Amino acid sequence: MANATQTKFGYPETLIAETDYWTLQTRPAQPTLGSLVLVCKEAVGAFGAVSPEAFADLGRTIPRIEAMLQAAIGYQRINYLMLMMVDPDVHFHVLPRYEGEKRLGDITLADSSWPGAPDLGKAVTLSPAELQILRDHLRTHWATDVTE
């Protein structure tokens, strides 16, 4: 069963990948092209309450996310934001950062706050069709095996 944060970010329609402890979803409001949300499936509201098994799974998942985003979007830096002020479940906003614009089909997004801190208030909400295009594109780049 999905938690409140997964649901808020459009689960299951936005789902790119799922591990034993985490879901990786496209973020409907995109501050940069390829922005994601990584949500813990455990019923915890504090990062320190995440189980050792979920932390280990996170360690295996992060390299896969970075490989996927590099292949699918290309980025210069990546930001992981753990804000948890509105959405109660442990989660990260994963933002690929780049100078200028990135394009996927008819979707073009600039990193409007490069090289500063990301501005989530300037996010562009994608249409359901655009969100599906982005989700499907990212899914094709989800690596099953990433070596460090």
UniProtKB/TrEMBL annotation:
<dbReference type="GO" id="GO:0032259">
    <property type="term" value="P:methylation"/>
</dbReference>
<keyword id="KW-0489">Methyltransferase</keyword>
<protein>
    <submittedName>
        <fullName>HIT family protein</fullName>
        <ecNumber>2.1.1.-</ecNumber>
    </submittedName>
</protein>
<dbReference type="InterPro" id="IPR036265">
    <property type="entry name" value="HIT-like_sf"/>
</dbReference>
<keyword id="KW-0808">Transferase</keyword>
<dbReference type="GO" id="GO:0008168">
    <property type="term" value="F:methyltransferase activity"/>
</dbReference>
